[in-house]
Design brief:
Distance between the termini: 50 Å
CATH architecture of the largest domain: 3-Layer(aba) Sandwich
Structural class: alpha/beta
Number of domains: 2
CATH superfamily of the largest domain: SPOUT methyltransferase, trefoil knot domain
Number of helices: 9
Number of strands: 11
Strand order of the largest sheet: 8-7-6-10-9-11
Shape: elongated
Strand content: 15-25%
Order of helices and strands: EEHEHEHEHEHEHEHEEHEH
Radius of gyration: 19 Å
Amino acid sequence: MLESTDKQNNIICGKNPVLEALRSGREIDRLLIAHGAGGGSIKEITAKCASRGILIKEISPQKLDYYCGGANHQGVAVMFASREYSTVSEILDYANEKGEAPFLIICDEIEDPHNLGAIIRTAEVCGVHGIIIPKRRSASLNATVAKTSAGALEYMRVARVTNIAATIDELKSSGIWVFGADMNGEDYSLTDYRVACAIVIGNEGKGIGPLVRKKCDKIISLPMRGRINSLNASVAAGVLMYGVMQSRK
């Protein structure tokens, strides 16, 4: 199989190598297809990925060239995760096995892999049982995330779901309180985090999506005294995670 020399992603490129990766049952993160490529085995590859719910993304041939490090990609490549994804149920089971109230972080469209990696690193230190990310419009568990997490990814359970809002409904039905981190909420220090809970961290630019915000049990905010009114997503997540850890002593 042809491996990319790009340091930021785990990637396999070329029609036959991609087909073999799919046949092996390997955990595929996403399929990349160059604009204009199609027919023959690429059609077969696309169908296999669609049947497995793998994200399919069309990109420019030049961008695919970059990802594949100059290898002959034949218009197609797959990226695979640096670590296998867990399920939400497995995260909750892990918390129960430890005899602890579940503590989860939900990343609502965190797109910067450095932010996701930093969140994973702090989450591991703060005793978070697992992280939930969406399949679309989110950084995935690529090599950049693994490196930024400084090894924490090896110990952190990450579930990838189709619909964050629907997942929140499922968590709430399991007795988990969902707190959204956003502006114009209650001071985060006034909330009791000793309950089973999940904290939602929003997109770097847009924050929490309107539907996800509506699903939250409460909106919590960090006090601000400066002239700007926002923090980097991973920094805000870190402050909140430490707040939860402190309240659970």
